[in-house]
Amino acid sequence: MTIFLQSLDYQLWHIIVNGPRMPTRTIEGVVSPKPENEYNDNDFRILQLNSKAKHVLFCAVGPNEFNRISSSKISMLVHEYELFMMHDHESISDMFTRFTTIINSLKNLGKSYPNQELVRKILRCLPKSWTAK
């Protein structure tokens, strides 16, 4: 697999080993994600390589392995959902973004919860300081 990926494009192997790369910019020494409207040809090449690496991995995994990976991912996300709590000093919008990410990931894998249950879960995960509200 290593040789196959390196023969396609050596950067593919690098992306698989180190994770996907995202276009960034540096402003006053601070590195931040680059807005899409500022992407150049090299940024699009990086994103294309990220997608190509995922595609090669999806093609390399057979249906049985894919099902095992999916069910494992579902188990991890359900566990994360069950233990979900609002962090200290976390804003409501940040907490809701984390929650939505978990719910959307589960939905993409075929596991969903009714809206009533999601609302109850959000209310239960709020700290005691929110009880009066």
Give the SSE map.
Blueprint: H1 2-8, H2 10-18, E1 24-27, E2 30-33, H3 41-60, H4 63-82, H5 92-108, H6 115-125
Antiparallel strand pairs: 1-2
Helix pairs in contact: 1-2, 2-3, 4-5
Summarize the structure in words.
With about 130 residues, this protein is mainly α. It has two domains: about 1-60, no CATH class; about 65-130. Helices cover about 65% and strands about 5% of the residues. It is built from six helices and two strands; from the N terminus they run ααββαααα. It has helices at about 1-10, 10-20, 40-60, 65-80, 90-110, 115-125, and strands at about 25, 30-35. The chain has a two-stranded antiparallel sheet with strand order 1-2. Helix 2 (about 10-20) crosses helix 3 and helix 4 runs antiparallel to helix 5 (about 90-110). The longest helix has 20 residues, at about 40-60. The model has no long low-confidence stretch (mean pLDDT about 90).
What is the general shape? flat
Q: Radius of gyration over alpha carbons?
A: 20 Å
**Helix count, DSSP H or I runs of 4 or more residues:** 6
Oligomer: single chain
Strands of the largest sheet, in order across it?
A: 1-2
Can you tell me the residue ranges where pLDDT is under 50 for at least 5 consecutive residues? none
The major beta sheet can be summarized as:
2 strands, antiparallel
List how many beta strands DSSP finds: 2
Beta-strand fraction estimate: 5-15%
Number of domains: 2
The span between the termini is 56 Å
Into which percent range does the helicity of residues fall? Answer: 55-70%
- What do the pLDDT scores average to? 89
The chain-level structural class is mainly alpha
Topology pattern, helix = H, strand = E: HHEEHHHH
Protein name: UBN2 domain-containing protein
Pfam families: Retrotran_gag_2 (PF14223)
